[in-house]
Design goal:
TetR/AcrR family transcriptional regulator, mainly alpha, HTH-type_TetR-like_transc_reg, 10 helices, HTH_TetR, Tetracycline Repressor, domain 2, transcription regulation, about 220 residues
Length: about 220
């Protein structure tokens, strides 16, 4: 039988697969048992790997959470980049925010995110990771909102654009809490309603309305 030696590229690919295997198991365990309830031994059993293997790829649980957050962050930034490059930026953003809102409304997704957020209030390192992700998302979203703002007849101020971002963030994050509280709605109907609400948040302009009222009453 011919002996076969893996190339460096193949070895890296295998390492990436094992790393992904750990992250996948960690998401499930954190969601089911919580951050503190998930020991490295529990994670090793769930991933079908040894404790030593886990430590080979990650120094501790915080490093695993950091990798999960980084993975999610990269996915979001890729979507944001695609939105900026599409012809209908507003429609692309509305569709993206609606997708994320619906994802957060599912209990299995809400559990993991809320567990990480809860631990971030007590764990300084996790707190910094969460804050860093939020700042990167904020910067990317503001870039999209400023592109949309350029097409307005009466542009929003920077402060108004930031308020729009906070409104969107609060709306999306709220679905995490609603999922835990047992709120279940038809996702198709929710999506249609979200399209209307999001368009209002992103398109409405108090300054424009005030100017129109002044013309009508003047």
């Amino acid at each position: 039988m011919e002996n076969r030696t893996d190339s460096p590229g193949e070895r890296r690919s295998g390492a990436e697969l094992r790393r992904d295997q750990i992250l996948c198991a960690a998401k499930a365990c954190f969601s089911e048992y919580g951050f503190h309830g998930t020991s490295i031994a529990v994670l090793a059993k769930s991933s079908g790997m040894s404790v030593g293997h886990i430590y080979h790829y990650f120094q501790n649980k915080e490093a695993i959470v950091e990798a999960i957050a980084e993975e999610a962050m990269e996915e979001i930034l890729e979507v944001h980049s695609a939105i900026l490059n599409c012809t209908e930026i507003l429609d692309g953003l509305i569709s993206h925010v609606a997708d994320v809102s619906i994802e957060f409304s599912r209990l299995e997704n809400a559990r993991l995110r809320l567990e990480i957020m809860s631990e971030a209030t007590r764990n300084a390192r996790l707190g910094r990771i969460v804050q860093d992700c939020d700042q990167r998302t904020r910067k990317s979203m503001l870039e999209i909102l400023k592109c949309i703002n350029e097409s307005r007849s009466v542009p929003l101020s920077d402060a108004e654009i930031e308020i729009r971002f906070e409104l969107l963030s609060s709306l999306v994050s709220g679905f995490l809490m609603r999922a835990v509280k047992g709120c279940h709605v038809d996702e198709n109907e929710l999506r249609q309603s979200l399209y209307q609400v999001l368009r209002f948040i992103l398109v409405s302009n108090v300054s424009e309305q005030a100017a129109e009222n002044e013309v009508l009453t003047g």
